[in-house]
Amino acid sequence: MRTTRTRRLAGAIALALTVATAATACGAGEDGKAADGGQTRVFAADNGQITIPVSPKRVIATGYAVPALLEAGAPLVGVSSWKRGIPLFNEQERKKYDELAKVAGESASETNYEAIAQADPDLIVIGVPKPVLADIDIKRLEAIAPVVAIGPSVPSMWRELSRKQADAAGAAAGFDALKTAYDTKAKALAEKYKAVVPQLKLGHVGAYGEVAKGNFQREFNGSWGTNIAQDIGATYYGQVKVKGGGSKDVSEYPSIEELSTAFAQADAITYSVAADGSVPAPVKYVLDSPLWKELPAVKAGKVYPFRFTEAATYRAATSTLDAVDQAFAPLLKQ
Amino acid sequence: MTTTGRSALLGAALLGLVVVAVLSVGIGAHAIAPGEVVRALLGEGNPSDRAVVLDIRMPRAVLAIGVGAALAVGGVLVQALSRNALAEPGVLGVTAGAGFAIAVGSSFGLAASAPAELGLAVLGAVGASALVYAVGSKSPLRLVLAGTALSAVLLGLTLGLRLLFPDTFDVYRFWSVGSLAGREQAPTTVPLIVIGLSLLGAFAVSRQLNAIALGETVAHTLGANVARVRTVTLLLITLMAGAATALAGPILFVGLIVPHLARRVAGASIPWLIAFAALLGPVLMLAADVGSRVLLPTGEVPVAIVTAFLGGPVLIWAVRKYGAAPL
């Protein structure tokens, strides 16, 4: 018994030493050079002015930074799980995502600090919304490598943040080409739908967050399901009853009883569906409600499903534009 | 208290139940004038108001009555059976079993719909209480210990599954906060029939439980078959608490607080206790459910949180004012 305990204790000490060594080895110098001799720079992030390597070689990405850095081709050595973005990855990104060590789960509270230390990173890019940062022990991560937190406060912020995340990871090259492709497509679609879409008062039924137990998610301008359609001229009328900060400034969770008042003025309603076109449970709950069938937009047949509302990079959002185009196509025939 | 006095109080409780039920159909997130509520009940008026009243609030009120009665009467039975004033139906592992089944089911992608969730919860509740009974049927103390131990094990396993499978965590975290909202599309008829029949069974077995409360020797003398009564009572608790938990998720306070309130007017008589609990449980659930709809400016508070807020102070007040009544 005593031998087993001694072995366990020795193992724990060895692991602690490994983590401490990794942390020491990865620390950046203060004179513009990292401990390993590489150049450093000061980067403005949500968690302050952080000294990071100019050309990081081993990067950890979590949350929204995962799709952004996969797309940018950053030198990743570990990522958090990002299931919602999998359908939007291309073949190369998917292969890379599958190969990489998963150092955190879908939520920030599932961060595996030991796995991050073992990946021996020289930069950690945390891409979670600011309120969620409280779930992460930043001090503990800073002992391993420089940490830059670059997370959205509202869903539509992926545009600026994906660029900033790629920049931090030293992988900004190619970013502008993808942005230009997106902007060109959005402009063309705005032209295509200019006679119909801007005239509509739109409502959106979402599938994110705390949607359960008799509630539904209503999304306004700037939210997950709406922000990309806005780039082609869509406007989602109204605003949240009480601003709760972050995504709660652009979406809310009313009782199903309020469905008829929430969308009474809507000329058309859009709703989020999965990548394969299937209807997620929170949206199906709304679509199956007797109140849904009484809405003027539903009676007029003006309801449109949106795929790929999870997009948080320009390449992925280009797929979303295609999906929005497909969903809105019937409007041109009416 | 005399039988006449108790009957009068029971009538008052029934009247209170009717009043709260009417309020629960009239009050909600979507404001509807009282006249329109009546028109909706008659199948007339605005189609949206009619849908809110008939398709959302009415089924929800029926659910609150069924769940409240099941948990409250289940609480009376489990306290009588275990002779433990702090026992509630969850002590038999019913809630933990239902939660574990939901976690396992969602790990395998089987909890994708309301009917599937309901079926899993029933299976888990029945399985857990069968195991508890198999281990602890010899005595009330062993029963409570077995239930507590199994609950702890199942809660640990559920936590492990949630950590291993994030999707499970997502399904479980919504299920684990008891609520009556959003159940109007679920198939509730069978569980409600099970609750109704179990309530009748509880009345049928109540006199023999009364005899057992006097001690097993006395019960034998009075002609009660102790083992059989204990088995039937346990089965009734499982059916009621299992069906209620499957319908609304875990709502822990009702089964604990209502028997204490009922005991103030019913005394130690099990039949009277059951009668009062069957009315006071629904009153508490309906009142809490109305509160859950109006407390927030947008959306709802799960009813289990409201019952905890209502039940906690009431329990403290009852214990301080009257002290613990003998079981």
TrEMBL record, chain A:
GO terms for biological process: iron coordination entity transport. The keyword Transport applies. It comes from the Bacteria. Residues 58-334 form the Fe/B12 periplasmic-binding domain. It is found in: Cell envelope. GO terms for cellular component: outer membrane-bounded periplasmic space. It holds the Pfam family Peripla_BP_2. Keywords: Signal, Transport. PROSITE patterns: FE_B12_PBP (PS50983), PROKAR_LIPOPROTEIN (PS51257). Residues 1-25 form the signal peptide. Belongs to the bacterial solute-binding protein 8 family. PANTHER family: IRON III DICITRATE-BINDING PERIPLASMIC PROTEIN, IRON(3+)-HYDROXAMATE-BINDING PROTEIN FHUD. This is Conserved putative secreted protein. It comes from Amycolatopsis japonica.
Automatic annotation (TrEMBL), chain B:
InterPro entries: ABC_BtuC-like, ABC_transptr_permease_BtuC. It comes from the Bacteria. Coiled coil: none annotated. The chain crosses the membrane at residues 59-78, 90-112, 118-136, 143-165, 234-258, 270-288, 300-319. GO terms for cellular component: plasma membrane. GO terms for biological process: siderophore-iron import into cell. Signal peptide: none annotated. Gene3D superfamilies: ABC transporter involved in vitamin B12 uptake, BtuC (1.10.3470.10). It is a multi-pass membrane protein. It is found in: Cell membrane. GO terms for molecular function: transmembrane transporter activity. Keywords: Cell membrane, Membrane, Transmembrane, Transmembrane helix, Transport. Belongs to the binding-protein-dependent transport system permease family. FecCD subfamily. PANTHER family: FE(3+) DICITRATE TRANSPORT SYSTEM PERMEASE PROTEIN FECC-RELATED (PTHR30472:SF1), FERRIC ENTEROBACTIN TRANSPORT SYSTEM PERMEASE PROTEIN (PTHR30472). This is Conserved putative secreted protein. It comes from Amycolatopsis japonica. The lineage of its organism: Bacteria, Bacillati, Actinomycetota, Actinomycetes, Pseudonocardiales.
